[in-house]
Amino acid sequence: MPSYSRRDALKALPALAAGLAGCASLTGRDDSLPMPTAWTAGVRTPTRALRPPSGPLLVGTGSPFHADPMVSALDPETGEERWAVTGRKGYRSPLGVDDQYAYLFSKAGRATAVDYEAGERAWNIGLTGVDRADPGVVQYPPVVADDTVVLPISGTENDVVDRLLGMSREDGERRFRAELPASLAGAPASAPAGDGSQAGVVAPILDGTVRRFATDGSESWRVDVGPSPSSVAVAGDTVFVGSATEELLALDAATGEPRWRGSLRNTAFARPLVSDGRVYVGGADYFLYAFDAETGTRLWRRELAGPVTCGPTRVGDRLVTVVGSDLLVRGHSGTVPFEPTALYVHATDGTLLGEYWFEGYLDGGTVNWVVAAGDGVYVGQE
């Protein structure tokens, strides 16, 4: 594998990881990260990091324990903790953010907003029907739509009422409850108002439909796309979603009408990335694709070592993608381990620039996600 400097490889590549002290000495091997790294911070089972334009790097945790913070604010340059907010025992969702608050909800039966400049709770509201549900009920982050934050409460088993719960961003007051006919198949996405449509969220459902809901809970449209779609991406007036029909679908965001279908060789687990007139999507077929966002024409396809489980995410003129790792698949599959785990760096024209494999690497555990935030790339491990 070619050697890259930190700037040449990824511009900046901090790692966000939970370290397992002593692994290298016990195994007699060099278990340091297989890519250039700026810093490492200890967070137990970190959820995907977010960095608001005016705030610190924010990270949640998948840990169920009291002592592990629900939300931590880290210095993006050094990884040092600025503040942390703890909560009751219970698994928590990944974070959703707006220009003031970070949002999450918990199997402890609470929905919480944290002012990320002050590091203090803004509100903390009780929920029903989540404390006895399976851990998958908190798999997806809250979605901000206009003046409403929408909680995607949906489990992997039949022990919870699958629903979208709308709450006021300002004070947590309940706005609506929209029950779903089946579990969510992937993460919903915010959809702006336009062409006569209200602001709202677009949600993929395991019954094979994609549905748009307004911020009053009313259903704006639904379209049958076949079996289990992936997480949703919304860009401008178009919704993009991968389907188990082995297609990438582009739908009109205002009406749900299909615009084009791009052929894949398998389903897509991860959310498509839309950038500069292109749609990038990683498939379970071991390929990374680029399509023209307007026409659906496939621009290129590159083979990888495994199914894409996170990404791609864009950093400057580069795409960073994770293959392998463990993935909680909706439906009957449950948590599926994919091997090997590797991180790829491609140019936006598909040229391979870097390939980092985690075979035999123990310190920090499995890589679960990678995100671009500001001018850095952050990697989350077990």
Summarize the structure.
This protein is mainly β.
Reconstruct the topology from this structure:
Elements: H1 6-10, E1 15-16, H2 23-27, E2 57-60, E3 71-74, E4 81-85, E5 96-97, E6 101-106, E7 110-115, E8 120-126, E9 143-145, E10 148-153, E11 163-168, E12 174-179, E13 189-191, E14 200-204, E15 209-214, E16 219-224, E17 229-235, E18 238-243, E19 247-252, E20 258-263, E21 273-275, E22 278-282, E23 287-292, E24 298-303, E25 308-315, E26 318-329, E27 334-347, E28 352-357, E29 367-373, E30 376-381
Q: Would you mind describing this structure in some detail?
A:
The protein has 382 residues and is an all-beta fold. 3% of the residues lie in helices and 46% in strands. The protein is built from 2 helices and 30 strands. The chain has helices spanning 6-10, 23-27, and strands at 15-16, 57-60, 71-74, 81-85, 96-97, 101-106, 110-115, 120-126, 143-145, 148-153, 163-168, 174-179, 189-191, 200-204, 209-214, 219-224, 229-235, 238-243, 247-252, 258-263, 273-275, 278-282, 287-292, 298-303, 308-315, 318-329, 334-347, 352-357, 367-373, 376-381. Strand 3 (71-74) and strand 4 form a beta hairpin. The radius of gyration is 20 Å and the shape is globular. The model is unreliable at 1-31 (pLDDT under 50). InterPro entries: PQQ_b-propeller_rpt, PQQ_rpt_dom, Quinoprotein_ADH-like_sf, TAT_signal, WD40/YVTN_repeat-like_dom_sf. Residues 70-193, 207-336 form the Pyrrolo-quinoline quinone repeat domain. This is PQQ repeat protein.
